[in-house]
Amino acid sequence: MFTSWKNYVAKWAETYRVEDTMMRIARSFGSNDPQSYVTPTGIIFSLHSAEKTKLQRITKRTTNLNKVIKVNNISRSISSGDMSAEEAYKILKSIEEGYPQYPMYINIAAASIASGFSLIMFNGGWNDFLPSFIIGGAGFTCQIFLDRLVNIKFFAEFLASLVIGLMSYLFIKVGAGHDLSNIIISSVMPLVPGLLITNAVRDLMAGHLVSGLSKGAEASLTAFAISSGIAIVFALF
Predict the structure, then answer these.
(1) Burial of 53 (0-12, 13-18, 19+ CB in 10 A)
(2) What are the angstrom distances between the C-alpha of 6 and each of 36, 68, 89, 232?
(3) pLDDT per residue over 21-64, tens digit each?
(4) Are 135 and 176 in contact (CB under 8 A)?
(5) Could you tell me the residue ranges of all domains in the chain?
C-alpha cells in the first residue's frame, strides 16, 4: 500500500493532508506509533518496530483532483472499519494505474472555454472571444504533447507559451483579434500553476517549510517559463 501513496502526493494533495491520511490509516490497521515525512519529491514512512523505514521517490507530478478525492474516500472507509488492508491496497493500485477521468479532447475543450471566458472576465470584448478560445486550446494541447515528447515540464510550458504568443500576434495581424494583451493573458490561464501556488501557501502556513518552499519554487519556475515565452514574442514583434 505504501508505494501507492506516491500517486496521492503526486496529484498535488497538500503535504499535511497526505501525512495525516497515512497516519490515520496506519493507526486504523493497528500501528501505535507510525511516522511519515512527505515532500513533493519523496515519501518516507515508518511503522517503527513493525518493519523497516521505507522511501518512495516521486518523479512525476500532475494535477488530478479526482484521484485525490478517491483516495480520501478510501481513507474514510478504512478509518470507519468498512474496508480491509487488502481491499484498500487493491483499490489504490487501480487508482494509480487508472486512466484520467476525462479524455484529452474534453480537457482541451475545457481549456479553450476557460481561456475564452477569462478574456470576458478581464473586460475583453466579445470580438476577441473566438481567438482566445482557439489559442487557449492550442496552447494547452501543445503543452500536453510537448511534455510527453521532451519530458521536461518547464521546457514544454515555455514552448506552449511561445506558441500562444505567436498565434495571438498572428490573429492580430490578420485582423481576427483586436486586443493583444487580453488575448495573451486569457490564453495562458490554463497553464498558470494556480493549484500549485495555493498548496505551497497552505503548506507554509501549516509549517511544512520544505514542501512549501519547493512547491513555491516550482510554481515560480513555471511562471518564469510562461512569461519568458511571451516576452520573446513581444521582443521579436
Answers:
(1) exposed
(2) 13, 11, 13, 37
(3) 888 888 888 777 788 888 877 888 887 665 677 878 777 777 67
(4) no
(5) 2-97, 104-236
Three cell numbers at 228? 519568458
Output the pTM of the full model.
Answer: 0.76
Rounded Cα gap, residues 205 and 40, in angstroms: 16
Give one word for 123, left, alpha or beta, with left for phi > 0 and alpha for psi -120 to 50.
Answer: left
Give 98-119 pLDDT, tens digit per residue.
656 678 888 899 999 999 999 9
Specify burial of residue 52 (Cβ count, 10 A radius: 0-12, 13-18, 19+): exposed
Backbone angles phi, psi at 122, to 5 degrees: -85, 20
Those residues whose C-beta lies under 8 Å from the C-beta of residue 46, and which sit 6 or more positions away, are 34, 35, 36, 52, 53, 54
